[in-house]
Design goal:
It contains ten helices and nine strands. It is an alpha/beta fold. It has one domain: Phosphatidylinositol (PI) phosphodiesterase (TIM Barrel), CATH 3.20.20.190. β1, α1 and β2 form a beta-alpha-beta unit. The radius of gyration is 18 Å and the shape is globular. It starts with 5 loop residues before the first strand and ends in a 9-residue tail after the last helix.
Length: 260
């Protein structure tokens, strides 16, 4: 069975290079990965930077809170040495710097980590990026932010991030599929991006596919599981090892490159 779909590099090629840096993003494109996922937050001087955590401690060893810090202050920190000395002096990238790396056949998936104050600036930067609307997708755990984002930027696909049984009792989710689908449709979103746990079974996948919605899965580093998910209708797999995962699934004849 041949699946036409794509693999998403989680914060770039984050297994081999420091997450959410230009190094990890360039490495993904070099390895012919078709889609890269990043996280964005807003600084105190209204600049969008690419980072997952609300502060810099985990990846720099020095704690600066993003929303209380200027871009120039953040640019002073080393964001690479925590991964390996060879990545020393890797700096935090701006969204604009990342968007400029996207190749013509590439897609960037942007997770919004800040509140709704980021949306006007985000709209401006995306519209000035030179990328086609089909090359950009937005995701967030806060569905209200996605609702506002869709009203402001209806040209981009947007998916609601869900942790499902990552942190909640599984049994609660069996009765919530329809509620989730109804909310996604009511807010004119395009699908969901869900934790690849036990709830993400054939029945769950089918419910969203039958509703005409996209369904992605995060974060999958096992080729067997990734292959099963793709074979059963999942539209995209987010992984820390995107280049390797693509090679493994290609060997198994369950993955081919496709356009957007």
């Amino acid at each position: 069975m041949v699946i036409k779909n794509y693999i998403i590099a989680h914060r770039g090629e984050s297994f081999d290079a420091p997450e959410n840096t230009l190094a990890s993003i360039h490495l993904a494109w070099q390895r012919k990965v078709k889609a890269v996922e990043i996280d964005i937050q807003l600084t105190i001087d209204n600049q969008i930077v690419v980072i997952h955590d609300p502060d810099t401690f985990r990846i720099s060893g020095k704690k600066l809170v993003i929303k209380k810090t200027t871009l120039s202050e953040l640019k002073q920190l080393d964001f690479g040495s925590h991964k390996h000395p060879k990545w020393a002096e890797e700096r935090i990238p701006t969204l604009g710097e990342v968007l400029s790396t996207v190749p013509p056949e590439g897609k960037i998936i942007i997770e919004i980590k800040s509140n709704a104050h980021i949306l006007d600036r985000l709209n401006q930067e995306l519209s000035q990026s030179g990328l086609e609307s089909a090359q950009i997708e937005l995701i967030a755990f806060d569905v209200q932010i996605l609702k506002k984002a869709k009203q402001l930027m209806p040209e981009y696909k947007m998916l609601w991030l869900l942790d499902l049984d990552y942190s909640r009792p599984r049994q609660l989710l069996w009765t919530e599929k329809r509620k989730i689908i109804n909310k996604v449709k009511r807010f004119h979103l395009d699908g969901v991006d869900v934790w690849a746990g036990q709830v993400l079974n054939c029945d769950f996948i089918s419910a969203f596919k039958d509703a005409g919605l996209l369904i992605y899965a995060w974060t999958v580093n096992d080729p067997e599981k990734a292959g099963w998910l793709l074979q059963n209708g999942v539209d995209g797999i987010t992984t820390d090892k995107a280049g390797w995962m693509t090679e493994e699934l290609t060997k198994k004849h369950i993955f081919t490159e496709s356009g957007f």
